[in-house]
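User: Predict the complex with zinc ion.
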Amino acid sequence: MAEGKGAHGWAARDVSGHLSPCHFSRRVQRDDDDVTIKVLFCGLCHTNLHVIKNEFGNTMYLVVPGHEVIGVVTDVGRGVTKFKAGDTVRGLLCRLRG
Ligand SMILES: [Zn+2]
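Assistant: Here is the predicted structure with zinc ion placed in the model:
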């Protein structure tokens, strides 16, 4: 399976609440409705704090918290009509897990 572009983030590795740098590969864009973005800014909300400390009981470490982002679209699938490369986007995304 092809490997995606390298990325870096700050990851929680256990319930301590401490974040440390991590490197990971992003998923390769593969679906017609995929939108790939470069994250420029990311906020942490209280949900992230619950996840970091496994307060919901389902955290799968390591976890890179932060799902409220502002970014720029870098690639879109063939079926995407609402966005194009270069668009600035903001919104809620799923957590990244490694
Ligand atoms: Zn949130």
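Residues 45, 47, 67-68 surround zinc ion (CB under 6 Å).
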